[in-house]
Amino acid sequence: MEKIVAASRVLLAIAILALAWSIYIFTLEAKQVRVELPTLIKQIDQTAQRITPVVEEVQKIQAIIPSILEQSEKYQQAIPEVLARVDDMNRQIPVILNEVQSVTAAIPPILEQSNQWHSSLPSLLEQVEQTNKTIRATNQQIAATNKQVPAILAESEALRVAMPEVIRQAESLVQQAEQAGREASKGAVTGVIGGILSSPFQLVDSLTSQTFGVEDKSFSDKDQQLHKQAVESLLRDPSAGQTIPWENSSSGNSGTVSIQSTTQNGSSTCYNILSRLTIAKGTDKGTHSIVTERCVVSQ
Question: Where is this region: Disordered (predicted)?
Fold first, then answer.
């Protein structure tokens, strides 16, 4: 029993020593903690200051997440269309490849033709050389001709000196011809395009279908009569730029006559009359024009 008590006391002493050692160690640790506590608190404050911006950034990110999700949903909706376009492109690839093959197949004939051109180049150069020789010969002939220029100029000068007399004789012949024409044409209707007549009403000749270059059925007798009446009306008081229209309700054809210009030729007044014929139907459908010159001798 005494041994047990002695052992208990020894164990108690050891326990007390261990407790004392533990208290000592705890005291040292507490002292170390007390020394490092301000630094820890400072670090905690710094960490808290750093966490605040991070939290704000997280909040901002959380705020834009819905829009990101919305855009993502739109992208997902667009994916089928994109895939469809990709499928279309894939379907077009064989066609493109066929065209590439066609172009590739066309290259050898082009190269062959190019080789033919290259082979014909010497003959072309020979022709150029012959042309150059011809040009040199031509230049020699021109030089020989230049030697004859003084003689030609001398003949031209002689002709210029004689020209006034020739012109005087020609004017005399023209005056005689005009006088003969006036005497031969008085009171007569020529019936041709142009002429020298003695009165405005004798200026009117009916233009036929052959005159306009159309078929007879396209330019009827009634059309010709209406055209003639329009010309008669125009020439009662002729002036440059004046236009008289006509229309045939039965055939549907229509037209205009106008004086383009008036010139004075001695004692005669000449009119350039523009006749336009518009055919409504048939093979000659469209507008046909002809200009006639009519001259009248002043009384």
Answer: 237-263
CB count in 10 Å sphere of residue 249: 8
Q: What is the pLDDT of residues 163-181, one digit of tens each?
A: 666 666 566 565 555 444 4
The residue length of the chain stands at 299
* pLDDT tens sequence across 109-153: 888 887 887 787 788 788 878 888 888 877 777 777 777 767 677
Distance of CA 269 to the CA centre of its chain: 49
- Edge-first strand listing for the sheet containing 243-247: 196-197, 286-297, 268-279, 254-265, 243-247
Distance CA(57)–CA(132), nearest Å, equals 88
Domains of the chain, by residue range, sit at: 120-185, 190-297
Burial class of residue 255 in the structure, from the number of CB atoms within 10 Å of its CB (0-12 exposed, 13-18 middle, 19+ buried) = buried
